[in-house]
Write a structure and sequence with these properties.
By secondary structure, the protein is mainly beta. The protein contains 1 helix and 31 strands. The protein folds into 2 domains: 330 residues, Glycosyl hydrolase domain, family 43 (Tachylectin-2, Chain A); 141 residues, Sandwich (Jelly Rolls). Helices cover 2% and strands 55% of the residues. A hairpin with a 4-residue loop joins strand 7 and strand 8. The longest helix is centred in the N-terminal third of the chain and has 10 residues.
Length: 485
């Protein structure tokens, strides 16, 4: 039995174990999930692959798990697409992307292998590879790897060289790849090809900036309205005020791109997400032209998991991207509205002190809150709550800061629990809370900023409570999200 067949058989034996899984967020059938891969259209359906180790709830030899959907919310399981089974990828099939070409679905990934080094030792090498398939089964051609160290300029590392993102424009295939030079500094490389098999190095699209960590992972480069956006996931990044937290971050650079000279001039940069658990996002262009982003809702630093779960890792809700006033705006895909049930609505409702509102509870909900008027300094929303637990976000009006806090979510270890964000607007006008059993995605001021975080509070804790130290009038619109599998 092949490595791929063995992995597929093992995964299939666990397919019915869904009770502990999120209602409408992608999670693995079994084992470990991290980066989204190959987020793409193929034959008018959306496919999503992901870094996958089915045999353990810890990171291990990377396979590519696989789902597809026609609405970004209800996902259909498909068998594992590729496994580490060739000499050039035996250590793992790392992150990458996918496109449709000549009726086939083409996956681009980083093959990781071990090679003898010049000092008679060994070293780990990363090269770019492809697999070609029909949406279910994929074959690795004999031409692999299609980009290896021979195509890299002198002084560029073949050890940190990964995460190809490919797109086609003007009959030319373009690929951005994360790399580190021999001085240990991160950079994003651009390659081009006419055939998908024969690539050439074009330029360094963007190079190291001191404040943005070391190795830059998972690049994505696309046009949104009149600007170009480069998204990277820097490692080993120090915090700077409230804009970036320590460790592994996700940053977007907004600027102008001269595609004839292949020069990207960045103008401004911000964090993509301000929560505790967000990394390695990837975007695609939907059939209707929308740019959709999905990210790994997890943290390398924390690795939070459910105590009794045989799986680890989940994705964010897919998000529609817009550009307003040179800020990246993110909102849940509109298709989620098809799964809204049991509407509860209040208009001009006064919150004073600790307040429960009839009908406002649940762990799989979509809730919109408009803050109208009032005299107060603090406004809180607590959820996943009962007498023992609560997770909450708290708005400090004077400092214009929103804080997320999960320290009372039932944790038995000392991990990072708080994250604060300075609002881009001068006040909190509205907040959207999207909950799915073990996750919260908080969309501030129509998606101007987002915080994504996990908590594994027991599911019976489902109360929602508001608090205001003065009084404030709010509108509330709340729905249960139900996805019939």
């Amino acid at each position: 039995m092949s490595i791929l067949q063995k992995a597929r058989q093992y995964e299939e034996s666990h397919i019915d174990d869904i009770d502990s899984k999120p209602e409408f967020h992608v999670s693995p059938v079994i084992g470990w999930l991290n980066d989204p891969n190959g987020f793409s259209l193929y034959q008018e359906e959306v496919h999503l692959f992901y870094q996958y180790h089915p045999y353990d709830t810890e990171w291990g030899p990377m396979h590519w798990g696989h789902y597809k959907t026609d609405d970004f919310i209800k996902w259909e399981y498909l068998p594992i697409a590729i496994a580490p089974d060739e000499e050039y990828d035996l250590i793992g099939c790392f992150s990458g992307s996918a496109i449709e070409h000549d009726g086939k679905h083409v996956l681009f990934y980083t093959g990781v292998t071990e090679s003898e080094s010049s000092n008679n030792g060994s070293e780990i090498l990363q090269n770019q590879c492809i697999a070609i398939g029909d949406g279910i089964d994929y074959q690795k051609p004999k031409e692999n790897p299609i980009i290896d160290g021979e195509l890299l300029p002198e002084g560029f590392s073949n050890i940190d060289f990964r995460d190809p993102k490919v797109w086609k424009e003007d009959d030319v295939f373009h690929m951005v790849v994360a790399n580190r030079n021999n001085d240990g500094k991160g950079q994003i490389l651009l390659f081009q090809s006419d055939t998908l098999m024969n690539w050439k190095f074009t330029t360094v699209l963007m190079e190291y900036k001191k404040q943005f960590g070391n190795m830059w992972e998972c690049p994505d480069f696309f046009k949104l309205d009149s600007k170009h956006i480069l998204i990277i996931s820097p490692q080993d990044m120090m915090a700077r005020d409230l804009e970036y937290h320590n460790g592994n971050n996700v940053v977007y650079f907004l600027g102008e791109y001269n595609k004839e000279q292949h020069v990207f001039e960045d103008e401004t940069s911000y964090a993509v997400d301000y929560g505790l658990d967000f990394y390695a996002p990837q975007t695609m262009q939907a059939a209707d032209g929308r740019r959709i982003l999905i990210g790994w809702m997890q943290s390398w630093d924390t690795k939070l998991k459910g105590a009794d779960h045989n799986w680890v890792g989940m994705m964010t809700i897919p998000r529609e991207l817009k550009l307003i006033n040179n800020r990246l705006i993110q909102t849940p895909v509109r298709e989620i509205e098809q799964y809204r049930h049991n509407k509860v609505n209040y208009v001009d409702y006064e919150i004073k002190g600790h307040t429960y509102v009839e009908g406002i509870s649940g762990r799989t909900i979509d809730m919109m809150i408009d803050l109208l008027n009032g005299e107060y300094s603090t406004f809180d929303i607590s959820f996943a709550q009962n007498e023992d637990y609560r997770v909450y976000c708290s708005y400090n009006k004077k400092d214009n800061i929103l804080k997320f806090d999960r320290k009372y979510s039932g944790l038995h270890r000392d991990i990072i629990c708080e994250r604060e964000v300075k609002l881009a607007s001068n006040t909190l006008k509205n907040i959207r809370v999207l909950l799915d059993k073990y996750s919260a995605e908080i969309f501030i001021n129509d998606g101007e900023q987002v915080l994504s975080s996990l908590y594994f509070t027991p599911l019976e804790a489902k109360d929602i409570q508001f608090y205001c130290d003065g009084s404030v009038n709010i509108n509330i619109e709340k729905f249960d999200i139900i996805v019939h599998r």
